[in-house]
Amino acid sequence: MRDVWAAQNTRNVSGQVQAALPAHGSKLYKITPNQATSPSKPADVTATDVSRTTVSLTWQPSTGATSYKVFANGQQVATSATTNVVVQGLQPQTQYTFTVKGVTTGRSSEVSAPITMFTAKSGGGPVRYEAEASTSTLTGNAGISGCTLCSGGAKIGNIGGDATVTLNNITVPATGTYLVRIAYTDGDTSRQSMLTVNDADTYWVNYHGLGDNDWGTPQITYLPMKLSAGANSIKVSNPTGYIADIDWITV
After folding, report:
1. Does domain 43-118 have CATH number 2.60.40.10?
2. Contact (Cβ atoms closer than 8 angstroms) between residue 33 and residue 39
3. Which fold has domain 128-250?
4. Where are the domains of the chain?
5. Per-residue pLDDT reduced to its tens digit, 182-222
6. In sequence order, which residues have a C-beta less than 8 Å from that of residue 67 and are 6 or more positions away?
7. Sign of CA dihedral 188, 192, 195, 196
8. Were 95 and a residue from 77, 132, 150, 176 both cysteine, which residue would form a disulfide, CB within 3.0 to 4.6 Å?
9. What is the pLDDT of residue 4?
């Protein structure tokens, strides 16, 4: 705020200002609003876990935000002082669209890009589909190998080039986006593969290797995938190089 006639800047004030004036006196003030900016928009909202009534979310920080508001289908469902939250009180087997806003005193960011996710069905958690099951389809040199720490004591290896594994009959009750988890072993530093759903939609997934040539210790990664109501197939491949060995997929 500036006292125009006195040609002086006054101290920062908010709300109101008072000045002593002589009889019939006056002052002229120039008031410049605070130029504070709103927080930046949160990025990379990702689901990391799903149950019948909860969805765990994480995102990249919003510059200038001191907290976050989380929305499901347009309604605020949670607040968080960190870049992750567990949204509770959801309905089983229901698709929700989640968004996040960064918040600071009196200001908020634009809404984040949305992420859509189904909660798990009633009466049980995610269903596991073993890569080495008889219902899977193998091509090329892809084959079953023993793995003491893997589920069922086996996994599918030598996947890459024309060698692929397709997990069949992955069943969901309704068309929508589901959190798909993949168990794998990777003794290299990092590998990646394509996941092709029903010979149509393709997703890329990165396998973070241990870098110690340990191909017997399973790890888990996850990604949201759109599946169709009924039975689905997920083909795991990489036409240009070898990938991690695959233990199982859960939906």
Report:
1. yes
2. no
3. Jelly Rolls (2.60.120)
4. 43-118, 128-250
5. 999 999 989 999 999 999 999 999 999 889 999 999 999 99
6. 79, 80, 81, 102, 103, 104
7. negative
8. 176
9. 53
Interatomic CA distance for residues 134 and 124, integer angstroms: 24
Residue 152 phi, psi (nearest 5): 75, 5
Cα–Cα distance measured from residue 111 to residue 45, given in angstroms and rounded to the nearest whole number: 11
SS (H, E, C) the chain: CEECCCCEECCCCCCCCCCCCCCCCCCCEECCCCCCCCCCCCEEEEEEEECCCCEEEEEECCCCCCEEEEEECCEEEEEECCCEEEECCCCCCCEEEEEEEEEECCEECCCCCCEEEECCCCCCCCCEEECCCCCCEEECCCEEEECCCCHHHEEEECCECCEEEEEEEEEECCCEEEEEEEEEECCCCEEEEEEEECCCEEEEEEEECCCCCCCCCCEEEEEEEEECCEEEEEEEECCCCECCEEEEEEC
